[in-house]
Amino acid sequence: MRLIRLIALASPLVMLLPLSAQAAWPAGVRESYMKDCVSAASQSVDQKSAEMHCACGADKLNEKFTTAEIGELMSKTKQPSAELRTKALDAIQECRVKK
Fold it and tell me: What span is annotated as the signal peptide, if there is one (predicted)?
């Protein structure tokens, strides 16, 4: 009986996990990142590869950064700290597209 109660309690929380996974990007910033990233990446690889690379990078940033950190990284008015830039480059390193 305890197991059924535990499952009943845990299932709503498990269903909310996908919503919290997408919570780090400020409104409109992911779309702006994707547009800029695909534009830059498509100069050296094909469009589809550029889109896959940029989506991977966006997911990695979403996994490893807070909303505030992503906002600082993507700020058009303020340069992010060198430490934050290095952390971001390390986070998206495995997304590199092979030519």
Answer: 1-23
pTM: 0.69
Q: Which residue range(s) make up the domain with 74?
A: 24-95
Residue 6 reports pLDDT greater than 50: no
Residue pair 61/92 in contact (Cβ under 8 Å)? The answer is yes
DSSP-assigned letter for residue 95: G
Residues in the chain: 99
Q: How far is the first Cα of the chain from the last one, in angstroms, to the nearest whole number?
A: 56
Q: Where are the alpha helices (DSSP H) in 22-46?
A: 29-41
Amino acid at 22: Q
Residue 34 maps to a domain: yes
Grade residue 24 by pLDDT with cuts at 50, 70 and 90: confident
